[in-house]
Amino acid sequence: MTAVAVQLDLEALGPHFGSVVRGVDLGAASDEQLVAVRAALVERKVLFFRDQRLDDDGQVRLGRRIGELTASHPVVGGVDAAHPEVYALDSTDNGFADVWHTDVTFMRRPPLGSILRAVTLPPSGGDTNWADSQLAYDSLSPAVKDLVDGLTAAHDGTREFGYYLAQRRGGQGNEWDGEVVTRLDPVEHPVIRVHPETGRKGIFVNPGFTSHITGVSEFESRAILDLLYAHLTKPEHIVRHRWRAGDVAMWDNRSTAHYANRDYGTDRRVMHRITLRGDVPVGPGRS
């Protein structure tokens, strides 16, 4: 018997990307619903689910039904021993994300996507913004596309996580892609990434982890990166989510960057994230 495709109830947040998904209980979703969610994730890039009742166990179960889970992070331990896949972003422990970034691009195989759950929210503030890297690429001028299509950039996690790995983990991180992380050597990825499922091109550099463009001068690298960052984060390429209790966000890490507003002072903000195992980024004309 052929399975009947599920039509999701989507509220578009922008004309090109970002949707609220109505009527799906992620803790009790059917296989058919999750197939539809997975397809919508690729198409709309970032999805939001209201009034969910997930805990850490439920979040991990959900992630395993959608894809293959990674460790919580290459170097940061899980929220507890029972949940090594869950990464806690706690503002009382420097758990901020107030720089534009794409998750874990400093590894050879960055995550396919992330699932983020609100645990403790400040009374106001702490919104998260997502930028559509494919829409941003599409709106570049042809001459700039020609320039950046063949470029490669280095991504380095040392600035953000090198101290943590050395001092708090004693030089031994988590297992990532079958190897225990003991150092954060820079990796190179194409500046423009071709999405493995749609073939669409997207800007794949970010201020959080990209250190420089390879094969050009430092001055040229900075100028090109500044141009791409400014273009990627234009308001027409962004959706913004105001969190409330019970919210879950899910995004395609291969076609987005994000930024969490740090505007809530000394109030506490705690978010729990899991990530789905991805593939090695490929650029235009590469295989």
UniProtKB/TrEMBL annotation:
Molecular function via GO: 2-oxoglutarate-dependent dioxygenase activity; metal ion binding
Look up the domain of life of the source. Bacteria
What does UniProt give as GO cellular component? Answer: cytoplasm
Keywords in alphabetical order, please. Dioxygenase, Iron, Metal-binding, Oxidoreductase
User: Which positions fall inside the TauD/TfdA-like domain?
Assistant: 11-275
* Entries under InterPro entries matching the protein: AtsK-like, TauD-like_sf, TauD/TfdA-like
Q: So what family is this one in? A: Belongs to the TfdA dioxygenase family.
Listed PANTHER family = ALPHA-KETOGLUTARATE-DEPENDENT SULFONATE DIOXYGENASE (PTHR30468:SF1)
Q: What is this protein called?
A: Taurine dioxygenase
Q: Give the species this sequence originates from.
A: Actinoplanes auranticolor
